[in-house]
Amino acid sequence: MLRPIGPVIVFGASNFPLAFSVGGGDTASALATGNPVVVKAHERHPGTSELVAEAIRRAVVASGLPAGVFSLLHGPGHIVGRTLVQHPLTRAVGFTGSRTAGRALFDAAAARPEPIPVFAEMSSLNPVFILPGALRERGATIAAGLTNSVTLGVGQFCTKPGLVFGAENADFASFRGAFAEKLKAVAPATMLHSGICASYRKLLSRAEALSAAKPLARANPGDPTKTQGEAVALEIDVPSYIKHPEVAEEIFGPFAWIVTARDFAELEAAAEHLEGQLTATVHGTPDDLRQAAALLRILERKAGRVLINGFPTGVEVSPAMNHGGPYPATTDVRFTSVGTAALLRFVRPVCYQDFPSELLPEPLRNANPRGLWRTIDGKLSQAAIPAGS
Amino acid sequence: MLRPIGPVIVFGASNFPLAFSVGGGDTASALATGNPVVVKAHERHPGTSELVAEAIRRAVVASGLPAGVFSLLHGPGHIVGRTLVQHPLTRAVGFTGSRTAGRALFDAAAARPEPIPVFAEMSSLNPVFILPGALRERGATIAAGLTNSVTLGVGQFCTKPGLVFGAENADFASFRGAFAEKLKAVAPATMLHSGICASYRKLLSRAEALSAAKPLARANPGDPTKTQGEAVALEIDVPSYIKHPEVAEEIFGPFAWIVTARDFAELEAAAEHLEGQLTATVHGTPDDLRQAAALLRILERKAGRVLINGFPTGVEVSPAMNHGGPYPATTDVRFTSVGTAALLRFVRPVCYQDFPSELLPEPLRNANPRGLWRTIDGKLSQAAIPAGS
User: Fold this and answer.
1) CA pair distance A284, B365, nearest whole angstrom
2) Residues B289 and B262: beta-carbon distance below 8 Å
3) CA distance B124 to chain A (A)
4) Does the active-site annotation cover A43?
5) A187-228 residue pLDDT tens
6) B104 and B165 both lie in a single domain
7) What residues of B are labeled active site?
8) Does residue A139 sit in the same domain as residue A170?
9) CB A353 to CB B306 under 8 A?
10) In chain B, is it the N or the C terminus that has fewer CB atoms within a 10 Å radius of its CB?
11) Both A297 and A246 in a single domain?
12) What is the interface pTM, i.e. ipTM, of the complex?
């Protein structure tokens, strides 16, 4: 049976002050599986964090749980966060944020006398490959959908597409034109906080300074006093994308690279060059997809979720969801942070051998009054075990 | 769906040249889940390793698999093994052996640019708690069973009980006497290799040199030219066990500490002091067990498998088995090396969103010709999905 792993530290995210923070997925998964939770509030969201924590504290009292089952701490991550990760009673860590901070937590946890798992979600460019038939049949529709996906929430989704690949021809040129027109029309909007906005501008400037980068589209800049970020797209070719590691780094905000390949083989080379991603997307007709078997196999190795003819920004909370992926998308490719399987982050198996039924955890007792699915003599079953058997 | 994690490195074990080595559990789990395997042969078992590898190579050819799906390498662990763990294409590592070597592999894997999971099984003392009612009712029977468990395979099982706890009274004294008599009668036997035997003698000498340790039993020593190990037991009290960390270190061979508590509270303190274990065992009558609820809760946190009125040396390969445990029993408390769940070591989830059925992996396609259990709209089902739905 899967049992609680022990006290869990959750780091509030900068970009998701609700769903990936104090009362977000990791806290829900850890509490649901029977673990106490200590949340380190993100320094940019102290008020939101307190409001959510207060609601959880009231729920803890109302449910008759021990008060220690949930705590919220404020303070600098490199002091408060690190101390929590190194505490001998801590058993697991959930984090969503930058690659630098996530890796530092992972390293601190791995260096403990007793190493513990760190589920850090760090960065993803969510590549989108648009194949020739799809470009020919519905390039303008894809351009419109892509614009929405790149600029949704001012580009502050971890699943925002930041790399868009196509093989050069007249249809891909038309697509770029349509995408540029759509993107230019996006109104500027306020980003989550000034830190994200400043980082967006800094990384944009670095990208624009690359001699291989060509401007494709820039929306009207917003009001600098309102920490607004405008939508931007740059063009580059595959050899330059492979040569410049900066192009493979996440730019958090409403930005995308459009990467042009000479041919299909160069698209596959571009896919093989990808680091680990949360998602990878292919747009194609049935004919396109039949010819893209090798590309799909590469993308399955690179990403935790592979989409066909969709956009990655929507993340459904469901049993089939995987929100995770190979490093550096996350530090543990074996687990998801969204969907019912997220519960598996904070459990460990325990085998109870020859226990009298009454000493077993309730779900393992013979009677099975809740009709849980259990494996009995190798077969899945919701049945009770008859007395005396 | 769970998919292969990628190339797996398996380290052959010193103590299990078959079940935990070239063709052992990790190799079987990795191959069964679709991963290529590279085995690093244990230096003490080069011939056995080659014989097993040759059988696997023939099976690879007979099955029409690519030759690269399985390889065996020989050489020093700190050179060949480390190089394999650091190779950029390596995706997971399985190891059974010493705490020092296991931790070194874990650290090397965690320090990689892309960290990878290491499943190292390192050490376990498999504590056994014998409660007063059980001592009174069947102390001699438990002594006989314990002797078998301590000396099975010359004490070279990772599940050998090395720490036996009881609260002092006349029944526990009788038990110790019976256990000593049984142990003294055990014939010496040849250990797996001279390295294990030399290490056994060295750790025995260190244990015997502790001033708090009292000799309890020593069987006839064997023939030193045959690398034989004789059964030995020492006595110590709980405060001394807590004071001397050496007592909590595994002595690989037919040896056990008998640890005497003043009372039940001291038994619980001894349990709380335990490091992570593969197994923990309690012998008790129904009355004993009702009073041992707190002890059982402590042991569940300390061990991957908890047994009542049995001995831990038998490890059944079954869906219910968990052969794993908190550090330092293993480096990853979330996974087992034995039983059907061992397959989970070498897989990662992938979500296929909006794939046409024919592009999905076969188990996810609508028709489900093999009647696999799948989750459809939140419900477990072996049914096919009707066309057009």
Assistant:
1) 20
2) no
3) 15
4) no
5) 999 999 999 999 999 999 999 999 999 999 999 988 878 899
6) no
7) 121, 158
8) yes
9) yes
10) C
11) yes
12) 0.96
**The pair of three-digit structure tokens given for residue A250, joined into one six-digit string:** 């996440």
Which residues are CB-contacts of B198 (< 8 A; sequence separation ≥ 6)?
Answer: none
Same domain? B302 vs B156: yes
* Contact predicate B116/B127, CB 8 Å: no
A332 touches B at CB < 8 Å: yes
Nearest to B350 among A107, A300, A308 (CB): A300
**Any idea what the CATH number is for the domain that residue A292 is in?**
3.40.309.10
Distance (Å) from the alpha carbon of A87 to chain B's nearest alpha carbon:
15
Instruction: Write out chain A residues lying below 8 Å of B350, CB-based.
Output: 300, 303-306, 322
Structural domain harbouring B31: 2-122+332-347
Is residue A363 situated within a structural domain? no
Q: Among B353, B379, B382, pick the best mutation site for testing chain A contact (most A Cβ within 10 A).
A: B353
| A59 and A152 within one domain | no
Which residue from A minimizes the CA distance to B319? A378
The model's pTM is 0.96
Residues above pLDDT 70, as percent of chain B: 99
* CB spacing of B3 vs A296 below 8 angstroms: no
pLDDT at residue B23, as a whole number: 95
Minimum-distance CB partner of A351 among B301, B321, B348:
B321
CA B327 – CA B303 distance, rounded (Å): 9
The CATH code of the domain that includes A340 is 3.40.605.10
- Residue B158 to chain A, least CA–CA distance (Å): 16
Contact B354 A310 (CB under 8 A): yes
Q: What is the rounded CA–CA span in Å between residue B386 and residue B256?
A: 61
Q: What's the pLDDT at B389?
A: 63
Each residue of B290-325: pLDDT tens digit? Answer: 999 999 999 999 999 999 999 999 999 999 999 999
CA B370 to chain centre: 34
Is the residue at A230 inside a domain? yes
Q: What is the rounded CA–CA span in Å between residue B174 and residue B168?
A: 10
Measure Cα distances from A188 to A14, A191, A222, A253, B174 in Å.
20, 9, 5, 11, 83
Looking at the structure, do residues A7 and A58 belong to the same domain, yes or no? yes
**SS3 category, A137:** helix
In a domain, A67, yes or no: yes
- Asked if pLDDT for residue A78 goes beyond 90, the answer is no
- Tokens at residue A118, please? 């760190």
**Three-state DSSP class for residue B266:** helix
What is the tally of structural domains in chain A?
2
B42 and B179 within one domain: no
- Chain B partners within 8 Å of A314 (Cβ): none
Alpha-carbon separation of residue A358 from A362, B96, B290 (angstroms) = 8, 35, 10
Same domain for B118 and B135, yes or no, is no
Q: What is the SS3 assignment for A184-235?
A: HCCCCEECCCHHHHHHHHHHHHHHHCCCCCEEEEECCCCCHHHCEECCEEEE
If pLDDT is split at 50, 70 and 90, which confidence band does A19 have? confident
In a domain, A337, yes or no: yes
